[in-house]
Amino acid sequence: MEKGYEVHGIIRRASISNTARIDHLIEKNAVILHDGDLSDSSGITAIIRNVQPDEIYNLAAQSHVQVSFDVPEYSGDVDALGVLRILEAVRNVGLEKTCRIYQASTSELFGKVEEVPQRETTPFHPYSPYAVAKQYGFWITKEYREAYGMFAVNGILFNHESERRGENFVTRKITLAAGRIACSLQEKLQLGNLDSLRDWGYAKDYVECMWLILQHDTPEDFVIATGEQHTVRDFTQKAFAAVGIELRFEGSGLEEKGIDTKTGKVLVEVNEAWYRPTDVDNLWGDPTKARTVLGWNPQKTTYEELVQIMALHDLKLAQKEAALKEAMKGIE
Ligand code: F7E
């Protein structure tokens, strides 16, 4: 929108509103929404025919890795065949020479990693139903580029976080809990694998890179990452520090605990329920190609700044919730 684009989006029907994260744009009529679903090719084709887009960013997916073990078929339908439906729709309406297509590929493709850090040439080893489906999405995008000469490209994005991140992804789960614990609205936070390593970047910076990939002279695939990795434990410690709580971790495995150094209270526990049947635990991206070819800055927002942005945002939310609770007490 900042670049002057007319932006259209596709929205799945739900019985209750699920637009909270874009309501400020809907109110300003800044985005035009169309009912549709990546499982429905006739609808996708009709939307693409009507809108006649110059660029398509396919960010739609069942994107939760753990959930994909519970809904593997649906994840495959949307995350794999959904990509094919878009590519076919673009061809069917005759836009294959003009419309550029960005496919949101993922670091989960590297999965049980075969090289550290991971770059464009690292072999894939997907390690969840989500990642296996995304592998199809990656290859079908490349295939349409090679078979039909379409400008169809993959951004292999490492984890991209922000204050709008869904609440069941680990970073947001941590920052929401840190804020609520600091405001005495919650006692504890339960997590899974604290040793898991991720290359976490700021979503806003990554969107800029997606755009650069589509403006490039030639259609090519790129890794988008910061080039730094940290554990879930480290993110937790930094997020709690940002809201004024110093944590010390003690014990190991399921017995590991995060303890408030001031009060001695246990604030973080490990729960087996958050472990995955197969977990990807060593993601670390090498953004050299995006930096040198596209001139993108992978460290525009640093890891430390990202944790601060998210933790302080969620502390404010918790403070509002606490104030409302206090005011309600007065009324009761
Ligand atoms: O997990 C560990 C968990 O769910 C990160 C998606 O956007 O990024 C995201 O996938 C790590 C994993 O993201 C909890 O086991 C520990 O090792 O935040 P996550 P993800 O699976 O990396 C990629 C790039 C995508 O493409 C995906 O669509 O954190 N972990 N304890 C936990 N994870 C969760 N969710 N909850 C926990 O309590």
Report the mean per-residue pLDDT as an integer. 97
Largest sheet: 4 strands, parallel
How would you write the strand order of the largest sheet?
A: 3-4-5-10
Q: Helix amount, in percent?
A: 40-55%
Rg over alpha carbons: 21 Å
Total of DSSP H or I helical runs spanning 4+ residues: 10
Q: Helices and strands, in N-to-C order?
A: EHEHEHHEHEEHEEEHEEHEEEHH
Associated small molecules: ligand F7E
Strand percentage lies at 15-25%
Cα(first) to Cα(last) distance is 45 Å
Q: Tell the overall outline.
A: globular
Low-confidence stretches: none
DSSP strand count: 14
Q: What structural class should be given to the helix and strand makeup?
A: alpha/beta
Can you put this structure into words, describing what you see?
This protein has 332 residues and is α/β, with parallel strands linked by helices. It contains 10 helices and 14 strands. It has helices spanning 23-27, 41-51, 65-70, 72-92, 129-148, 170-182, 203-215, 232-242, 288-294, 303-331, and strands at residues 7-11, 31-35, 55-58, 100-106, 152-157, 160-161, 189-191, 197-198, 201-202, 222-224, 230-231, 247-250, 257-260, 266-270. The strands form 5 sheets. The protein has a 4-stranded parallel β-sheet with strand order 3-4-5-10, with helices on both faces. The protein is globular. The mean pLDDT is 97. Bound molecules: ligand F7E.
